[in-house]
Amino acid sequence: MKVHTTVGVYNNDSFVVNGVLETYLKDHVEYNLKYRPGRAFFVDGKCLNEGYLSKERIENWERRIKSDPKTFVSNNDSKVYL
């Protein structure tokens, strides 16, 4: 089963990376959009929620995520989101 990578980015540029099984992705996305609205949220490198970040910062994060798969790609289910 496919594992999707999600990245939550706070306004101070700290971030959290999770590997999420496709089965749980919809619930994981809904939870993050509802309960963490100030945090930018990316799924597989694409921004779903800008949070408090500017458009320029979002674009920078999308580039950063894309250019650093060692940090921003999870092939394992982290199960932290359950």
Walk me through the topology.
Elements: E1 3-9, E2 15-21, H1 22-35, E3 40-43, E4 46-49, H2 55-67, H3 69-72
Antiparallel strand pairs: 1-2, 1-3, 3-4
Distance between the termini: 17 Å
* Share in β-strands: 25-35%
**Main β-sheet description:** 4 strands, antiparallel
Principal-axes shape call:
globular
Quote the average pLDDT.
94
Features of the shown structure:
82 residues, alpha+beta, four-stranded antiparallel beta sheet, 38% helix, 27% strand
Notes on the structure:
- The chain is an alpha+beta fold and 82 residues long.
- The chain has one domain (3-72).
- Helix content is 38%, strand content 27%.
- It has a four-stranded antiparallel sheet, with helices on one face.
- The longest helix is centred in the middle third of the chain and has 14 residues, at 22-35.
- The two termini are 17 Å apart.
In short:
With 82 residues, this protein is an alpha+beta fold.
